[in-house]
């Protein structure tokens, strides 16, 4: 019998075929819409990522509220994906919905500042310890703009990222390590200039290689998540960031932290929880309750250097910012999220649910004698097909198994449980109940009983 990661592949594949047939049989409306959408939408979906779910045809959503989602065929789901963090605090939070409704009647955008932007910037300064801020429509844009400011302020051309990272659709970051060499990521479409001329890539949690990569003084900034979340979660070693920051300061490289996912750690993200001191910080999709919005902050020193660089440059477009940045609707939504949704009380509930899930998954893997591990980052939890948590992107990639992931995901989805399609990440919202977590664990137990090696 063929097996992988302790799973009987024959049993798993037979079960998966039945699950695919069941998905289609129970969703006639979604199947009909899929047929229509293929005429006018590339890949049959508005964004091709929406085709990455493990379903034989797209799952069309009718509505979502709190931690619940309903599809067009009337099936209800407990959502542990939550828009891959965009709805981290639940779908359509009441304060955000009210703020949007109110502001939409007062003007949507004017390319002029409003009072909400001042309030949001002040609140972010308090939470993250960075005194000055700018706004964007996505973390992708915010990272792109922050890189430009870092290069402008330092006069350096290089950036450094970690192998397996993800920071949105910024061309510069799609560089991986292959056999010890930096190469453009094979999946990147339409790339025409060599990314490795201006981007360096090293493994996470390796201080010696970081030191060598920064030693020539050409790196403007190190762009990183405090803990990696794209390749599967990779946590930093206990003293990694303290020593890494010292290395960066020694070589004059700035630290740009992307907290879009690691905001799952608490109201001030990993940065506040662990006392990090970044020069720049980006926060994206959960900031406005799911409405397109992002913000990026500067240390006082870098803020001055950035402003001086703009003053010294010729007049004209800087290449930084868009006309809809800091629009009135987004600012109102950000203010409502920070003031009434992204609260200490909300995080407390999320942490309790995540601890419950982490504990339950560990117990499952022990009971079934599986060489799998569990990693948790505040309200974010992930299981990985490896006997111990990975320390870098290469180790995380080696433990991934797309076929196995898709089989698990579809089985759970057919039982009303959604998890993030890209890997085995689960997110807990303030609306997720203890019963929701127990139901997920019970269905996972059921799947393991069906496919485990005898």
Automatic annotation (TrEMBL):
Belongs to the class-III pyridoxal-phosphate-dependent aminotransferase family. The keyword Amino-acid biosynthesis does not apply. The keyword Transferase applies. Its cofactor is pyridoxal 5'-phosphate. This is Aspartate aminotransferase family protein. It comes from the Bacteria. It comes from Chromobacterium sinusclupearum. Keywords: Aminotransferase, Pyridoxal phosphate, Transferase.
